[in-house]
Amino acid sequence: MARKKVVITAHWPQTVVKALKQNYDLIMPPPDGALKGDALMTALQGADALSPLFYDKVNASFIEQLPESLKIIAGFGIGTDHIDVKTARAKGIAVSNTPGVVTTDTADLTLGLMIATARRFYEREQNIRTNNWQALALMEGLGQRITGKTLGIIGLGAIGQAVAKRAKAFDMKVIYHSRTRKPEVEKSLGLEHVGDLNQLLTNADIISLHAALTPDTHHMINKDAFKRMKPTAILINTGRGGLVDEKAMVSALAAREIMGAGLDVYEFEPKLAKGLAELDNVTLLPHIGTATVETREAMAMRVKENLDNFFEVGEPLDPVY
User: Fold this and answer.
1) Other CB atoms within 10 A of residue 127 CB
2) For residue 197, is it left (φ>0), alpha (ψ between -120 and 50) or beta?
3) Where are the beta strands (DSSP E) in 97-167?
4) What is the pLDDT of residues 199-220, one digit of tens each?
């Protein structure tokens, strides 16, 4: 069988690049940048596979321009809202992602955002960078602990479960709302299911988002949701940006309707909602939930495994429908 031509849009871990080159004709970006725009479309001519990153926009118009030779879009990341899966499948192109390998680091980052936001790390860092040791004042700039608080998890997939497990180390009460109730997980991790989302929003001290982004979950955290939260509540989003109405969030944070927010994903990333960057009660990270050496290598290797399986048996290990 002729070697398949695979196009990747960014520079990957060298260990995986070396492994890919053993089995595939690998087309990579130039040394000083990414592969995008006209250069990407040129590289795709005659290609069998494309592996975009989680922030590459693979919309309907892009997919319609893909050559007939291309048979799989092997996504590098868990999210697929940047890929028009329906259009791809209609054109006979398989789509895959890398769900299993991102859990650990995303869950770790979620807890980090909880602590950073609750203890007001951003404000305190600004204090010390401007030589203002306000943090030493006895009753000024106080944060709050996360130990013993009630954590409300929305979406109890693998990452939500990993967050719940870590939260137990902080003696947190964990309640959750999910499309599917999971009694076995409730029992093993000591979780409480809450069928009414509004009840979770009202009772939780920290709300952490891990639901898939669908038409039903788009803007599930909106103006009304913020009004139901405690004034001391913290919102954490390491899931998908579109779960939150960012305009409503900026208003709620500015008015101190909630204490703060910790964000790693954004509705229109890389753009931020107007006014978000100016707030001092929000912790902002640039979508780095999987940004460790270990996970990026594991993600790249999982893409390779999806490609291997697809070209061997006609189906990737992690198909997206």
Assistant:
1) 18
2) alpha
3) 150-154
4) 999 999 999 999 999 999 999 9
**Same domain as 60, residue 26:** yes
CA 15 – CA 147 distance, rounded (Å): 40
For 176-195, give one letter per residue: b (16+ CB within 10 A) or e: bbbeeebeebbeebebeebe
Domain around 276 = 103-284
> Residue 210 in contact with residue 154, Cβ under 8 Å?
yes
Phi, psi of 140 (to 5 degrees): -115, 145
268: closest CA among 248, 241, 292, 235?
Answer: 241
pLDDT tens sequence across 13-36: 999 999 999 999 999 999 888 899
Tell me, yes or no, whether 152 and 256 share the same domain: yes
Predicted TM-score (pTM) of the model is 0.91
What's the rounded Cα separation, in Å, for the pair 68 and 92?
A: 9
Which residues, other chains included, contact 113 with Cβ-Cβ below 8 Å and sequence gap of 6+? Answer: 236, 238, 262, 263, 264, 283, 285
Strands of 282-284's sheet in order across: 192-193, 173-177, 150-154, 206-209, 234-237, 260-263, 282-284
Q: Which residues are catalytic?
A: 240, 269, 287
Please indicate, yes or no, whether residues 143 and 169 belong to a single structural domain of this protein.
yes
Name the more confident of 126 and 274: 274
The pLDDT value recorded for residue 2 is: 82
For 71-122, what is each residue's pLDDT tens digit? 999 999 998 889 999 999 999 999 999 999 999 999 999 999 999 999 999 9
User: What's the pLDDT at 134?
Assistant: 65
Of 78, 144, 122, 81, the C-alpha closest to 296 is: 78
Same domain, yes or no, for 235 and 271? yes
Tell me if the bond preceding 270 is cis, omega within 30° of 0.
yes
List the one residue out of 54, 39, 96, 53 whose CA is nearest residue 71. Answer: 96
